[in-house]
Amino acid sequence: MRCYLCALEKRDSDAVAICIVCGMGVCMDHLVREEVEVWEGGYPFPSRKLKRKLPRILCRPCYSVYHED
Amino acid sequence: MSLMRRSLAELVGTFILVYFGAGAAAVTLMISRGAVSPNQFNIGIGALGGLADWLAIGMAFAIAIAASIYALGRISGAHLNPAVTIALWAIRRFPAAEVAPYILAQLAGASLGSLLFAASAGMDAVMVGGLGATAPFPGITPVQAILAELVGTFLLMLVIMGIAVDERAPPGWAGIVIGLTVGGIITTIGNISGASLNPARTFGPYLADHILGGAVMWGHYYIYVIGPVAGALIAALLYDYLSRE
Predict the structure, then answer these.
(1) Is B74–A41 a contact, with Cβ atoms under 8 angstroms apart?
(2) 3-state DSSP call for residue B83?
(3) Which residues contact B75 (CB under 8 A, 6 or more apart)?
(4) How many domains does one find in chain A?
(5) pLDDT tens-digit profile, chain B (245 residues)
(6) Contact B129, B30 (CB under 8 A)
C-alpha cells in the first residue's frame, strides 16, 4: 500500500500504518502516533490508570481535527 | 488516586445520599404534620399519599444514589454504605487497610448531610422530621426490623454484585439500576423498619438529631448495623459462590 497523502503531493512512498479513524494508509511523515492512557475498574471499585499506554496512530488530517482547539 | 481523595469522594457521595434521601423523609413528615393518620401504623409518611409517599422518598434516594454513582463511582467506587464496603472486603475485592478510612468517611459524610439539611430546612426538620432518622414502626419488633433490613440489603448487595462487581455485567447501568432497586426496597419496607439498608444513612440523622436537641435514638442503632451488614455479607458470599466456575 502507498501513502495516500504522498500521492496527493505527487510523491510515491510506502504506507507504514493505517489511520484508525479514516483508514488511510500513511507513511512515517504523515502519521501521528499518540499514547492513550488506559483506565480499568469503576463502580464499585476505584478506577486506576494502567502503567502501559495504548498506541494510537492517526493520519495528520484526522489528528488536526481531534486537536482543533 | 490517593486514599485521602477516595475517602473524600466517599464523604461527598454519602453526604448527597443523606441530604437528599433522608431529607426527603424529613420533608414528608413536615408536610404531613397535622394530617389525621388513619391508624397507629401510619406516623405521617403515608398520611397524604399512602404508599406513594414512600415511593417518593424512594425516588429521592434512587436519584441521589444514581447521581453519586455516576459522579464519583470512578474515583472511590461510590460505596456510600459501610455494609457494601464490608461485604466487598469479605469477598476479597476491597483491601482491608482501606475499610476503616472508607467507613469513617461515610459516617462523616452522612453526619454532614444531616447537619446541612437541618441548616437548610430549619428546626422543624429536626423536631418534626427527625432529619429522616430510621426506627422500627409501631408494632414492629427489633427482630422484625433487623429481618427487614437484612432482606432489603440482601437484595441491594445482590444487585450490586450482578450489575457492577461481575465483570460480565453490561457497563453503564449500575447507577440507575442500583438507585431504582433502593427506591423499590424503600417503598416496601419503609413503613416497617424505616428502610435504612445502610449504617451510615442512619448514623448521620441520629448524630445530628442528638447534637441539635432532637430525639435521641441510639438505642435502635444496632438494628441498622446488624441487619444491613448481615444482608450484604450473605448476598456477596452467595453471589461469589453462585458465579464461581
Answers:
(1) yes
(2) helix
(3) A46, A47, B1, B5, B6, B9
(4) 1
(5) 899 999 999 999 999 999 999 999 999 999 989 888 888 888 888 888 889 999 999 999 999 999 999 999 999 999 999 999 999 999 999 999 999 999 999 999 999 999 999 999 999 999 999 999 999 999 999 999 999 999 999 999 999 999 999 989 998 999 999 999 999 999 999 999 999 999 999 999 999 999 999 999 999 999 999 999 999 999 999 999 999 87
(6) yes
- Domain B3-242 falls under CATH 1.20.1080.10: yes
Distance CA B207, CA B203 (A): 6
- H-only helix segments in chain B: 3-16, 23-31, 51-76, 82-90, 99-121, 124-127, 142-160, 174-193, 199-211, 223-242
The domain ranges of chain B are 3-242
Question: Could you tell me the three cell numbers for B192?
Answer: 416497617
Element (H, E) at A45: strand A45-49
CA distances from residue A40 to A37, B4, B77 in whole angstroms, order as listed: 10, 20, 12
Residue of A nearest to B174 (CA): A43
B55/B90 Cα distance (integer angstroms): 32
CB contact under 8 A, B74 and A44: no
Closest partner residue to A42 among B74, B79, B160, by Cβ? B74
Is residue B82 less than 8 Å (CB to CB) from chain A? no
Omega before A44 within 30 of 0, i.e. cis: yes
Q: Which residues of B touch A43 (CB under 8 A)?
A: 69, 73-74, 77-78, 164, 174-175
CB spacing of B77 vs A43 below 8 angstroms: yes
State which residues form the domain around A24: 4-66
pTM of the prediction? 0.88
